[in-house]
Amino acid sequence: MSTKFIPLAEGFYVAPQITADDVETAKALGVTLIINNRPDREEPGQPAGADIAAAAKAAGLAYLAIPVSGMSLGPAHLDAFDEAVRSNDGPILAFCRSGTRSTVLRAYARARAGEAADAIIDEAADAGYNIAGQRGALIALGAR
């Protein structure tokens, strides 16, 4: 298995920036949906989302762009993420520059669904992502 794809939870992987060539590796892991959380042209030399989308389509995988600038996550991001997860059948790979935004997006969605902040933070930590600084936001999302 590629160390680039980090298992965050059963059936959910996060990754730093992927390329079109990584799509076949994702498919071999059973991934059925790729979620791109990185805006195009965030930095020079970054692969274009359209190229990754075309590779996903060619491989028979679903692809969805939910670009997040910095950590500016809002209800529209969460709604799009929730709908994508709900309508997908199979493992998911979400990526951004480092995997952190994808991890936080999933964390916010889980918190909004009522899951405990500490459990969410622990899951991320087990995958190598320190999102403890998001505890307050996770608690607030869970209180809504």
What share of residues are in beta strands? 5-15%
Can you tell me the residue ranges where pLDDT is under 50 for at least 5 consecutive residues? none
CATH superfamily: Protein tyrosine phosphatase superfamily
Order of strands, widest sheet:
1-2-5-3-4
Tally of domains: 1
What is the correct CATH architecture?
Alpha-Beta Complex
Using the CA coordinates, give the radius of gyration: 14 Å
- Give the CA-CA distance, first to last residue: 39 Å
Largest sheet entry = 5 strands, mixed
Question: What is the typical, i.e. mean, pLDDT?
Answer: 94
Q: How many beta-strand runs? A: 5
What would the CATH topology be?
Protein-Tyrosine Phosphatase, Chain A
Number of helices: 6
CATH class: Alpha Beta
Which structural category fits the helices and strands?
Answer: alpha/beta
What is the helical fraction, as a range of percent? Answer: 40-55%
Elements, N to C (H/E): EEHEHEHEHHH
The shape, in one word, is globular
Structural account:
The protein has helices at residues 23-28, 49-58, 75-87, 100-112, 117-126, 135-143, and strands at 6-9, 12-15, 33-36, 62-65, 92-95. Helix 3 (75-87) crosses helix 4, helix 4 (100-112) runs antiparallel to helix 5 (117-126) and helix 5 (117-126) packs across helix 6. 42% of the residues lie in helices and 14% in strands. Strands 1-2-5-3-4 form a five-stranded mixed β-sheet, sandwiched between helices. By secondary structure, it is α/β, with parallel strands linked by helices.
